[in-house]
Amino acid sequence: MLEVVEGKNSFGYIYEKIKRVLSIDSRDFYDKGFQFQHNNVYYRYTTTIENSEARQPVPANTVRGTTLHNFGKMWRDNDGKIRLTVLSQYDFRI
What we know:
Blueprint lengths: L1 E4 L2 E11 L7 E13 L2 E8 L13 E3 L1 E11 L5 E10 L3
């Protein structure tokens, strides 16, 4: 995470890897994104870094997927329960 305002991390790089399932190779994703909090609601957005293989090599038996859009919103409701809404669109290259 990169510091934008002293003491506040706002954007950075995210790496995820999903284990192999049956005969499908594992998938990984290398994304850029930002996050912020406003009125006690936490927001996050990520998308794939183009040519990410140059920054983070793809491991053996793994296919680099693409995150087209990943939006998330998390907050605590009036009952104290944590609520999460996510809208994502991925290309797993299957």
